[in-house]
Amino acid sequence: MTEEKTCKNQENKTERSDSQGCGSEECTNNTNQSCSNTKEQVTEEAKKAEDLSKEELLDLLKRTQANFENFKKQNQEHVNEVVRFANKKLLSELIPTLDSFDMALRGSEKSQGEVKIFLDGMKMVLDSFVLVLENNGVNKINQINTFDPKIHEAIEKVESEEDEGKILEVIQSGYTINDKVIRAARVKISSKRLE
């Protein structure tokens, strides 16, 4: 823009010098040539700026598109997580019912006659109930011999000759939903005897 003004100023000077008597053709040609050179430089710089702007816009577009793709992936992961744990509250509330079934059936092996038939039917109902829970991501915590505070809750320490921290008895089973603990297993663990 300033170069165009300079060019116009030079043209004005040429006109003034012509009117003041310079009138030489060489003077006018030099001025016109410098103006056309300046105009060409301005045009080239404008094209470079335009190309640069296109490149910058293209780069911005690519970055924005990548950010949007990342957003979509994160959003989908969040939706999947919500779906996986949508029934957590309901499933957590069903676990005490499972415990009740378990306790009711603990001594069923010794039963006979009609009671045995009834308890066998209840065992089938329990198995069906467990299958429904497993299909919804609820699993019983597999019992290991050593206490792990991530999946166990020690409700009693018993002096024993066993290694310290060994699980002696599972009082209440623990459960996970999609590999997250929703109830820790309540256990009795061994502790060293005080001598």
**Number of distinct beta strands:** 6
The structural domain count equals: 2
Rounded to the nearest angstrom, the distance between the terminal CA atoms is 97 Å
The CATH architecture of the largest domain comes to Roll
Largest sheet: 3 strands, antiparallel
For the largest beta sheet, what order do the strands appear in spatially? Answer: 1-4-5
CATH superfamily of the largest domain: Head domain of nucleotide exchange factor GrpE
CATH topology of the largest domain: Nucleotide Exchange Factor Grpe, Chain A, domain 2
Element string (H = helix, E = strand): HHHHEEEEEE
Helix count equals: 4
Secondary-structure content class: alpha+beta
Shape: elongated
The fraction of residues assigned to DSSP E strands is: 15-25%
Averaged pLDDT: 78
Report the uncertain regions: 1-24
**Radius of gyration, in angstroms, nearest whole number:** 43 Å
Helical fraction equals 55-70%
Per CATH, the class of the largest domain reads Mainly Beta
User: What oligomeric state is this?
Assistant: single chain
Task: Describe the model.
By secondary structure, the chain is α+β, with helices and mostly antiparallel strands. It folds into two domains: 2-83; 88-191, Nucleotide Exchange Factor Grpe, Chain A, domain 2. 61% of the residues lie in helices and 16% in strands. It has four helices and six strands, in the order ααααββββββ. The chain has a three-stranded antiparallel β-sheet. A three-stranded mixed β-sheet has the order 2-6-3, with no helix packed on it. It is elongated and about 115 Å long.
